[in-house]
Each structure stands twice: as C-alpha cells, then as structure tokens.
Predict the structure.
Amino acid sequence: MERNIHRDEFEQFLKDKADQYKVYPSDKIWSNINRSIHPRKKWPYAALTLFLLLGTAVFIDYNSFNYVVPGKKNLLSFHQSSKINQVTSPAITTEQSKDASNSITNHYTVNTLTSNPVKVNTSAEIKQAVGMKNISVLKKGSDITDDNSYSSKEVINNNPGQITDNSGNLQLINKSVSTLNNSSSANENKDEEKSKETGNPAKKLWGGEVFKASKFKWQLSFSPTISYRRLTSGLGQITEVFRGFPYSTVQAKTPVNDLVAHKPAIGAEVGASLIYKLTDNFTLKGGLQLNYSRYQLSAYSTKPEIATLALHNHWGGTDSVNFVSTLKNYEGYGSSWLNNEYLQISMPIGFEWSVIGNSTLKWNIAASAQPVYNFASNTYLLSTDFKYYVQDPSLIRKWNINAGIETFVSYDMGSFKWQAGPQLRYQLLSSYKNTYPIKEYMVDFGFKIGVTKTLR
Amino acid sequence: MTEEAMLKGCIRNVAAAQQELYYTYSPRMLSLCYRYGKNREDAEDMLQEGFIKVFTQIKQFQNRGALEGWIRKIIVHTCINHLKKNKKFNESVDLIHASGVYIREEAIPSIVQAKQVVECIRLLPIGYRTVLNLYAIEGYSHREIATMLDIEESTSRSQYTRAKAMLEDILLKKNILPEHVRNLDLLAVNP
C-alpha cells in the first residue's frame, strides 16, 4: 500500500472516529443468535405428542371395547361369541348319554374381537373363560369333539363339520346353534324394547353393553389463541402539564390506539370442566382454565430518560409517578417488538346449547362468564405523553372478568364426544387499575378443541 | 470473565460465555456493519449472521492474533457477502453515476463527532463506501479489496480516490474535519 503522510493522517482520523462510534444492538439479535447456535431439541415435544396420542388411543380403546360385567356376560367380548358358550350347554346335554367316556378337549380356543386366540389349557381356565355354569355341564357331557382343537365362533357357524361328536351327529349341534342364535337375538331385542319403554337414556355401546348415561360429564379442552388489545384513553381528566411534544396537538383528537404500534401474538388456553346435562340439548358448565395471552408492541431504544405516568388519585385529583425509561414509543436508535404477556387462571361458568343435529353430529353454541385471576404478567405501560414505555406491575389489575362465546361442532363417539370450533374471549374490565388513565381491553380469538367424557 | 475464559467457554459452546463475548464486541461490530449496511436493520442482519459464524467457527481461532481482529475479519467478510448477495455493491459501483451523488445535509445529525463522521461515510454511494471502509478503516490493500469484491485492483484504487475526495468535501462542508488533517489533506487530494 502506498500512503503518504497526509493520507495516513486522514485515514487515521477516519479509523479513530469509526472505532469510537458504538451502536448497541437490540436484544432480539442476541435471542436470534442464541436460538440459532442452541436450537431447541424438538424430540421431547414430538415424544410428548406421541405419548398423548397413544395414551388417548389406549384410553378410548379400553373404554370402548372391554365392557365386562361379571355375572352378566361371559368373557367373550362381542355378543355373537357369547353364543358359542351358550351353545355348548344344550349340545352337550343332548349328547351326554351317547359317550360319557370322552373328556373335554385339552385345548379350547376362542377368538376375541382382536383376533388373538385365547388358549385355555386346563379345566380351571375353562371355568374362568366360559363360566361355572357351562363348565359344570361340560364335565357331565364332556364330548364336544374328538379333535383336540376347538376354535372360534366362526368355525362353529361357518364350518360346522369341525364340531363333531363321537357318532358324527352334526345336525343336532347345528340346530342347537341356530336355535340359540335366534333366542339370543330375541333377548337383545327385548332389552332394547325394555329400555325404550322405561324411557331411560340407555345406550348400547360397541361392546354391546347397555347402560344408563350419567348427567355429569367432564371435559378437557385446548385452544391456540390470537390475542389483541383495544386501548381507550381517559386522559381528558389528566392535566395538560403531563402532555408533551409532539403529541400534545394531536392526542385530544387521535385515538390512543393510533398512537402506538402493536400487533397480535399467539397465546393459548387449556381447561377442564364439569358439565351437567339439563336436557338433551342444554347443558351447564363450570371449570378451571389457564390462559396465556400476549401481544407485541413496537418500541425503540433510547438513552435513559424520565418518563411520567399521570394517575388518578382517590380524591378525584391527579398524581404522577416518574420512571427512568430506555424504551421510546416512536423514535430511537433501533426498534424491536416487545411482548406484553398475561398468565391467568379463570373459572368459566356458562352453558352449551345444541342448536341442530342428530345424536352423533351436532352444531352447538356456548357462552360463559369467566372470573379471572392474573397471577403473572410482563407488561409495558405507555407514559402519559405517549413517548415512553415503562413497567409498573402495581398498576396491573389482579382480578378481572372475561366473557366468552363459542360455536362448535361436536361428534359423539359413545362415551366420548369430540368438539372443535372458534371462540372469542373479551375482557370486560381494563387490564390496568382505575388509577391509570389508559384503559386496555384484551380480546382473544381461538380455535378450541375439546373432548368430553361421560361419567359412569 | 477474562478473554481467555470467554474463549474457552465459547469453544465448549457455553451459552454464558458466548453471551459475554457478544455483549463485549457487538457494539463495535454493529458500528462496523452500520458503515456497510443500507440502514440499521440491514446492519443488524449482518451482525446476526456474522456472530453466528463467529460462534460456529471459533474453534478455528488459533490465538495467533487479537480475538477482536479475528471477529472483525469475519464480520467484514459477512458484510461484503451480504452486499454481494443483495447486489447492493454491484448496483452502486458505477463510477460515472456515483460521481453525481446528492448530499443531503439535513441527514447528518449534529450529535458527537464520531457519529457525524460515520454518518458522513454512510452518505457515500455504497460502492465508494465499501472500498473506503475496507482500505482506510480496515486496512486491507487494494489487491485484497479487488479479490474480495471481484473487481480490478485499479478500480479499487480509483474508487478509493474518488470516495476520499467526496468524503473530504462532505466533512469540510460540515466543518467536521480537524484543522491539521484538513490543510494537509486539501493539498494532497485537491491539488
């Protein structure tokens, strides 16, 4: 490099000045860098989701298929298979005189609904599997087959030739099967007729069991939400002393909403409720809910400056409190989006009304009032001259009340009911205490997904 | 935390050490990016990209020089790549068009002299500014600059001469240039 003394001095001057000048980056830059070099592990979330889905599937499966009521039904899970055991009794009784020397087969296999054969090897196991009454008869007759394997109701019904006695008399067994099939169907029809006559909301589940539904249900719900806020100003009562340039000329006419830059952000709510069924179409609901609401506001970094909040006092006058702020509303070194966040627990109490639909698919509307306790928040408040943002948790209202409306489609799967639909939650009182002249009302839009289980 | 401890922590990917290093050097590095970038947002993008490279490549730092110099080098290259990627450099490197640049006097805030100088540099067309930054402030030779910017060495020289003249003109108009630099420099650049 060729540089004479004059140029060196100029370049040194530039270098010195450039090195003296420092620009402080906004906090979000470090957050982005940190997130980039330390990415969050996604597998725990994937594993948790998988676990929840699996858990739900197992829970539904267990509750839907395994309705075993000792003394009322045998172990076989679906009603047709129960006929097999009922068949054995008369068939054996009929045939017992022919050959009493044969014993029960050593391997007795029956199909369950899941197609997994259950092998019963001993007479004790057979007792458990088929029931004491049938076993006692079996012991007397004891000539089901000369073949050591005996399997499946399908085999009985479709391939009767595999069920033989020693004399090869198949007709009698088959006849017994058809007779009992008919009588069993007739009994079921009688049950259904009986429940219709009594007017009980009896329901036949997948397992064939008939039960009377409880009026109480519990519900779990989750909803991703988008939160926004509406600002209004009670600044008319605040003395002009606290109003400053540049907004002093416009603030009287300009809505406070237009003096700030804010945008919605994603939150969530999760809740559990107890539901009481008043009529088929109308239910009352109460529960607990956790709400996380947030929105973002634009702020600029600035050197530390005094920010004043003018406050109403209890005697109708005006007080003020000063803060040192490094966040400006409208101009500064660099802008960033700040999160205003609220974590709340609420107790929604309301109703659901099924407007239209059949017993399986319904369209519903619901409304609720929700007393809210705001137990954590991270909130930036606007100074009275709208120039600065400051934080003062003591000005945040702890108790509030929300109103919620929603509409959803529900799908009844027996003892479970799934529902999904949009909802709106509106905060009835300002997020801030009455002493702070600016009022903020949170609005949350969400899409709620819920599952309702009937209590038994 | 000492620089050595900070460096060791960064090599072991310890977030606290990385944060410390970032807060130590980011104000100077953002100032550097600001001289190259179109605006502050542009500069912050360069800074972010640059520091990610710093943290991912810090194992390659051989302790042969100052850590700040090594970081600075990475950030400068990131800025150049950013300009190339966004075609900002190539679009503005035309000397004929650049010579007629309009200087907005009101764009120079009268705060401190350092900031004034930087803001004056930022008034230059981006091609001039890049060469001036690399040569006068970062200390690269014209050959290195030519390689970095994919231009001829002679182009780098001529751009620097014009950039320097233009900057001096701005600084003189703003009465920012110190007396001792001003007199000698006027003789050297404007014969």
